Amino acid sequence: xxxxxxxxxxxxxxxxxxxxxxxxxxxxxxxxxxxxxxxxxxxxxxxxxxxxxxxxxx
Amino acid sequence: xxxxxxxxxxxxxxxxxxxxxxxxxxxxxxxxxxxxxxxxxxxxxxxxxxxxxxxxxxxxxxxxxxxxxxxxxxxxxxxxxxxxxxxxxxxxxxxxxxxxxxxxxxxxxxxxxxxxxxxxxxxxxxxxxxxxxxxxxxxxxxxxxxxxxxxxxxxxxxxxxxxxxxxxxxxxxxxxxxxxxxxxxxxxxxxxxxxxxxxxxxxxxxxxxxxxxxxxxxxxxxxxxxx
Lengths: 58, 227
What we know:
Shape of chain A: elongated
Order of helices and strands of chain B: EEEHEEEHHHHHEHEHE
Oligomer: heterodimer
Structural class of chain A: mainly alpha
Strand content of chain A: under 5%
Number of strands of chain A: 0
Radius of gyration of chain A: 16 Å
Helix content of chain B: 25-40%
Structural class of chain B: alpha/beta
Distance between the termini of chain B: 18 Å
Protein backbone atom coordinates (compact mmCIF):
# COMPACT_ATOMS: atom_id res chain seq x y z
CA UNK A 1 0.00 0.00 0.00
CA UNK A 2 1.22 3.46 -0.79
CA UNK A 3 1.41 5.88 2.09
CA UNK A 4 0.88 8.78 -0.30
CA UNK A 5 -0.57 11.29 -0.26
CA UNK A 6 0.66 12.52 3.12
CA UNK A 7 -1.63 14.45 5.37
CA UNK A 8 -0.76 15.98 8.66
CA UNK A 9 -3.50 14.85 10.97
CA UNK A 10 -2.48 15.27 14.59
CA UNK A 11 -1.00 17.90 16.85
CA UNK A 12 -0.70 16.17 20.21
CA UNK A 13 -0.03 18.69 22.97
CA UNK A 14 3.31 18.38 24.69
CA UNK A 15 3.60 18.65 28.44
CA UNK A 16 6.89 16.94 29.12
CA UNK A 17 9.27 19.26 30.99
CA UNK A 18 12.56 20.51 29.52
CA UNK A 19 15.29 19.66 29.29
CA UNK A 20 14.32 16.12 28.44
CA UNK A 21 16.79 13.34 29.00
CA UNK A 22 17.20 9.83 27.67
CA UNK A 23 16.10 8.61 31.12
CA UNK A 24 12.85 10.57 30.80
CA UNK A 25 12.05 8.62 27.62
CA UNK A 26 11.48 5.55 29.81
CA UNK A 27 8.88 7.26 31.99
CA UNK A 28 5.22 6.34 31.58
CA UNK A 29 4.05 9.76 30.31
CA UNK A 30 6.64 9.60 27.53
CA UNK A 31 5.85 6.01 26.57
CA UNK A 32 2.12 6.78 26.54
CA UNK A 33 2.75 9.69 24.19
CA UNK A 34 4.78 7.56 21.78
CA UNK A 35 2.00 4.96 21.82
CA UNK A 36 -0.63 7.59 21.09
CA UNK A 37 1.30 8.93 18.09
CA UNK A 38 1.85 5.41 16.81
CA UNK A 39 -1.86 4.56 17.11
CA UNK A 40 -2.82 7.72 15.28
CA UNK A 41 -0.45 6.99 12.39
CA UNK A 42 -1.74 3.41 12.09
CA UNK A 43 -5.32 4.66 12.06
CA UNK A 44 -4.62 7.13 9.27
CA UNK A 45 -2.74 4.51 7.23
CA UNK A 46 -5.61 2.02 7.61
CA UNK A 47 -8.11 4.65 6.49
CA UNK A 48 -5.95 5.52 3.50
CA UNK A 49 -5.67 1.82 2.63
CA UNK A 50 -9.44 1.31 2.79
CA UNK A 51 -10.01 4.39 0.65
CA UNK A 52 -7.49 3.15 -1.93
CA UNK A 53 -9.16 -0.28 -2.07
CA UNK A 54 -12.60 1.30 -2.41
CA UNK A 55 -11.27 3.35 -5.33
CA UNK A 56 -9.75 0.28 -6.96
CA UNK A 57 -13.00 -1.68 -6.51
CA UNK A 58 -15.05 0.81 -8.53
CA UNK B 1 -7.31 22.56 -4.53
CA UNK B 2 -9.14 24.90 -2.24
CA UNK B 3 -7.41 27.33 0.03
CA UNK B 4 -9.49 28.28 3.02
CA UNK B 5 -7.77 31.12 4.80
CA UNK B 6 -11.12 32.75 5.56
CA UNK B 7 -11.58 30.42 8.51
CA UNK B 8 -8.89 32.13 10.54
CA UNK B 9 -9.99 35.15 12.54
CA UNK B 10 -7.78 38.22 12.93
CA UNK B 11 -7.32 37.29 16.59
CA UNK B 12 -5.58 34.02 15.73
CA UNK B 13 -1.82 34.45 16.37
CA UNK B 14 0.18 34.39 13.15
CA UNK B 15 2.33 31.29 12.85
CA UNK B 16 5.95 31.54 11.80
CA UNK B 17 5.48 28.66 9.37
CA UNK B 18 2.04 28.31 7.83
CA UNK B 19 1.09 25.63 5.33
CA UNK B 20 -2.50 25.84 4.20
CA UNK B 21 -4.07 23.02 2.19
CA UNK B 22 -0.77 22.45 0.41
CA UNK B 23 -0.54 19.99 -2.46
CA UNK B 24 2.50 18.80 -4.33
CA UNK B 25 2.37 16.68 -7.45
CA UNK B 26 5.59 15.56 -9.09
CA UNK B 27 5.82 15.20 -12.87
CA UNK B 28 2.89 17.12 -14.29
CA UNK B 29 -0.87 16.64 -14.08
CA UNK B 30 -0.76 12.84 -14.14
CA UNK B 31 2.26 12.65 -11.85
CA UNK B 32 2.64 11.33 -8.33
CA UNK B 33 0.73 13.13 -5.62
CA UNK B 34 3.18 13.50 -2.75
CA UNK B 35 1.19 15.86 -0.52
CA UNK B 36 -2.48 16.76 -0.54
CA UNK B 37 -4.35 19.04 1.84
CA UNK B 38 -1.38 19.40 4.17
CA UNK B 39 -1.95 22.04 6.80
CA UNK B 40 0.71 22.85 9.34
CA UNK B 41 1.31 25.77 11.65
CA UNK B 42 4.48 26.29 13.68
CA UNK B 43 4.74 29.22 16.10
CA UNK B 44 7.92 31.30 16.33
CA UNK B 45 10.45 29.56 18.56
CA UNK B 46 8.51 26.31 18.58
CA UNK B 47 10.00 22.88 17.95
CA UNK B 48 7.75 20.88 15.62
CA UNK B 49 8.19 17.32 14.45
CA UNK B 50 6.57 15.75 11.43
CA UNK B 51 6.47 11.98 11.70
CA UNK B 52 5.40 9.25 9.35
CA UNK B 53 6.64 6.22 7.45
CA UNK B 54 8.79 6.37 4.32
CA UNK B 55 7.05 7.78 1.28
CA UNK B 56 4.49 9.83 3.17
CA UNK B 57 5.76 13.17 1.91
CA UNK B 58 8.05 14.26 4.75
CA UNK B 59 10.99 15.29 2.57
CA UNK B 60 8.64 16.94 0.09
CA UNK B 61 7.27 19.03 2.94
CA UNK B 62 10.79 20.08 3.81
CA UNK B 63 11.58 21.18 0.25
CA UNK B 64 8.34 23.14 0.03
CA UNK B 65 8.81 25.07 3.28
CA UNK B 66 12.37 26.07 2.37
CA UNK B 67 11.30 27.18 -1.10
CA UNK B 68 13.38 24.61 -2.97
CA UNK B 69 10.24 23.39 -4.72
CA UNK B 70 7.07 25.32 -5.55
CA UNK B 71 3.81 23.75 -4.30
CA UNK B 72 1.16 22.81 -6.85
CA UNK B 73 -1.75 23.79 -4.60
CA UNK B 74 -2.50 25.75 -1.45
CA UNK B 75 -0.18 28.30 0.12
CA UNK B 76 2.95 28.41 2.26
CA UNK B 77 3.99 31.41 4.33
CA UNK B 78 7.15 31.73 6.39
CA UNK B 79 7.79 34.75 8.65
CA UNK B 80 4.66 36.39 7.26
CA UNK B 81 5.67 36.24 3.60
CA UNK B 82 4.58 33.91 0.83
CA UNK B 83 7.36 31.47 -0.06
CA UNK B 84 8.27 32.02 -3.72
CA UNK B 85 11.90 30.88 -3.86
CA UNK B 86 14.71 29.55 -1.66
CA UNK B 87 14.66 31.20 1.77
CA UNK B 88 17.67 32.91 3.29
CA UNK B 89 16.51 32.68 6.90
CA UNK B 90 16.67 28.88 6.92
CA UNK B 91 19.36 26.46 8.02
CA UNK B 92 19.10 22.85 6.86
CA UNK B 93 20.59 19.51 7.81
CA UNK B 94 19.97 16.11 6.29
CA UNK B 95 20.49 12.42 7.03
CA UNK B 96 23.73 12.56 5.08
CA UNK B 97 26.06 15.17 6.62
CA UNK B 98 27.20 16.33 3.12
CA UNK B 99 30.39 17.98 4.39
CA UNK B 100 32.81 19.07 1.68
CA UNK B 101 35.75 16.62 1.79
CA UNK B 102 38.38 19.22 0.89
CA UNK B 103 37.45 21.52 3.77
CA UNK B 104 38.26 21.04 7.42
CA UNK B 105 35.56 21.09 10.12
CA UNK B 106 35.89 24.82 10.77
CA UNK B 107 35.69 25.81 7.10
CA UNK B 108 32.78 23.42 6.48
CA UNK B 109 30.93 25.02 9.37
CA UNK B 110 31.63 28.51 8.00
CA UNK B 111 30.45 27.75 4.45
CA UNK B 112 27.04 29.49 4.75
CA UNK B 113 28.82 32.69 5.78
CA UNK B 114 30.42 32.79 2.33
CA UNK B 115 27.02 32.48 0.65
CA UNK B 116 24.32 34.10 2.76
CA UNK B 117 23.87 37.84 2.92
CA UNK B 118 24.79 39.96 4.81
CA UNK B 119 27.59 37.75 6.13
CA UNK B 120 29.35 37.17 2.83
CA UNK B 121 30.12 40.89 2.54
CA UNK B 122 31.37 41.08 6.11
CA UNK B 123 33.31 37.84 6.29
CA UNK B 124 36.68 39.24 5.24
CA UNK B 125 36.48 42.30 7.45
CA UNK B 126 35.21 40.49 10.55
CA UNK B 127 36.93 37.18 9.97
CA UNK B 128 38.17 36.84 13.56
CA UNK B 129 34.70 37.40 14.96
CA UNK B 130 33.15 34.83 12.62
CA UNK B 131 35.86 32.27 13.34
CA UNK B 132 35.27 32.76 17.08
CA UNK B 133 31.52 32.23 16.52
CA UNK B 134 32.14 29.04 14.59
CA UNK B 135 34.51 27.71 17.23
CA UNK B 136 32.02 28.52 19.96
CA UNK B 137 29.30 26.64 18.10
CA UNK B 138 31.57 23.65 17.49
CA UNK B 139 32.45 23.63 21.19
CA UNK B 140 28.73 23.66 22.07
CA UNK B 141 28.24 20.39 20.19
CA UNK B 142 31.38 18.80 21.65
CA UNK B 143 33.72 19.38 18.70
CA UNK B 144 36.26 21.66 20.38
CA UNK B 145 39.72 20.63 19.18
CA UNK B 146 38.43 19.08 15.92
CA UNK B 147 38.36 22.33 13.92
CA UNK B 148 41.34 21.43 11.73
CA UNK B 149 40.27 17.88 10.92
CA UNK B 150 38.95 16.83 7.53
CA UNK B 151 35.49 15.20 7.41
CA UNK B 152 36.87 11.73 6.72
CA UNK B 153 38.78 11.91 10.00
CA UNK B 154 35.51 12.31 11.93
CA UNK B 155 33.01 9.62 12.97
CA UNK B 156 29.49 9.70 11.52
CA UNK B 157 28.14 11.26 14.70
CA UNK B 158 30.84 13.93 14.69
CA UNK B 159 30.14 14.74 11.05
CA UNK B 160 26.48 15.16 11.90
CA UNK B 161 27.39 17.50 14.78
CA UNK B 162 29.44 19.58 12.33
CA UNK B 163 26.52 19.54 9.90
CA UNK B 164 24.25 20.95 12.65
CA UNK B 165 26.80 23.71 13.28
CA UNK B 166 26.90 24.55 9.57
CA UNK B 167 23.10 24.77 9.56
CA UNK B 168 23.14 27.22 12.48
CA UNK B 169 26.26 29.35 11.85
CA UNK B 170 24.37 32.17 10.10
CA UNK B 171 21.87 32.30 12.98
CA UNK B 172 18.86 31.25 10.92
CA UNK B 173 15.38 31.95 12.25
CA UNK B 174 14.23 28.55 11.04
CA UNK B 175 16.05 25.25 11.25
CA UNK B 176 14.78 22.46 9.00
CA UNK B 177 16.03 18.94 9.77
CA UNK B 178 15.33 15.98 7.50
CA UNK B 179 16.05 12.70 9.36
CA UNK B 180 19.27 14.24 10.72
CA UNK B 181 20.15 11.29 12.94
CA UNK B 182 18.67 8.53 10.77
CA UNK B 183 22.01 7.01 9.78
CA UNK B 184 23.49 6.93 13.29
CA UNK B 185 23.56 4.13 15.86
CA UNK B 186 21.02 4.30 18.69
CA UNK B 187 23.46 5.55 21.34
CA UNK B 188 24.91 8.33 19.20
CA UNK B 189 21.42 9.30 18.09
CA UNK B 190 20.21 9.69 21.68
CA UNK B 191 23.30 11.70 22.53
CA UNK B 192 22.64 14.06 19.64
CA UNK B 193 19.01 14.55 20.73
CA UNK B 194 20.51 16.12 23.83
CA UNK B 195 22.92 18.24 21.77
CA UNK B 196 20.14 19.52 19.52
CA UNK B 197 17.81 20.19 22.45
CA UNK B 198 20.51 22.24 24.16
CA UNK B 199 21.18 24.29 21.00
CA UNK B 200 17.47 24.95 20.67
CA UNK B 201 16.97 25.87 24.33
CA UNK B 202 19.95 28.26 24.12
CA UNK B 203 19.09 29.86 20.80
CA UNK B 204 15.31 29.48 20.47
CA UNK B 205 15.13 29.24 16.71
CA UNK B 206 11.99 27.78 15.17
CA UNK B 207 12.62 24.16 14.26
CA UNK B 208 10.89 21.65 12.03
CA UNK B 209 12.19 18.10 12.38
CA UNK B 210 11.18 15.47 9.87
CA UNK B 211 11.64 11.96 11.23
CA UNK B 212 10.24 8.44 11.24
CA UNK B 213 11.49 7.91 14.80
CA UNK B 214 8.58 8.48 17.17
CA UNK B 215 10.80 8.55 20.27
CA UNK B 216 12.98 11.16 18.64
CA UNK B 217 9.93 13.30 17.85
CA UNK B 218 8.56 12.94 21.38
CA UNK B 219 11.93 13.78 22.96
CA UNK B 220 12.62 16.88 20.90
CA UNK B 221 9.35 18.45 19.84
CA UNK B 222 6.65 20.63 21.36
CA UNK B 223 4.25 19.79 18.58
CA UNK B 224 4.08 16.54 16.69
CA UNK B 225 2.28 16.18 13.40
CA UNK B 226 1.87 12.93 11.59
CA UNK B 227 2.17 13.00 7.86
